[in-house]
Amino acid sequence: MSIETVLLAVGTEDEERTEQLAREAIAVAEPTGAEVVLTHVFTSEDFAGIRDRLGVDEGSEQSAPDAVAHRHTTTRELSRALSDAGVDHSVRGAVGDLADEVVEAASNVDADRVVVGGRRRSPTGKAVFGSVAQEVMLSAPCPVTFVRETAS
Predict the structure, then answer these.
(1) What is the value of pTM for the model shown?
(2) Which domains does the chain have, with CATH numbers?
(3) N or C: which end of the chain has fewer CB within 10 A?
(4) Which residues are 3's β-sheet partners?
(5) In what order do the strands lie in the sheet with 5-10?
């Protein structure tokens, strides 16, 4: 199976691992010339706060998730890394349940691979709090590459 579309899913918590995520997305996309759809998913609370921090009026066209995603630091850094590597990409934004939005975005763009970040958690932490990455791995319509947070 040839990889034509890679969904690189990021959220606000991925600010510390942009280099790792970019490196992995590039490694998956480069061999086949795949397009990377860089999708920043915001929770409703995060989205409102980030929109306010960016000084975007709620009713303006610039307040749409795609526009806010384009302006977010994490997304800009990843976009720059993809451009520097010569990887075709686009940027999208989504607001809602993180795992659900990633799975829906992967379906909508007919992704051949999803790249998602996460961190190591204890079994109790997973049971109590759940895991966005785990839910994506179980529900995505295609294979998922998990990029684990490295120890600082």
Answers:
(1) 0.88
(2) 5-148 (3.40.50.620)
(3) C
(4) none
(5) 89-95, 35-42, 5-10, 113-118, 144-148
Kindly tell me if the per-residue pLDDT of 47 is higher than 70.
yes
- Measured between alpha carbons, how far is 55 from 125 in angstroms, rounded to an integer? 35
- 140: CB partners within 8 A, 6+ apart: 102, 103, 106, 111, 114
Backbone angles phi, psi at 4, to 5 degrees: -110, -30
Between CA 116 and CA 103 the distance in angstroms is 11
Residue 23 has pLDDT above 90, yes or no: yes
Q: How far is CA 114 from CA 9, 59, 83, in A?
A: 7, 32, 19
Chain-centroid distance, C-alpha 78:
10
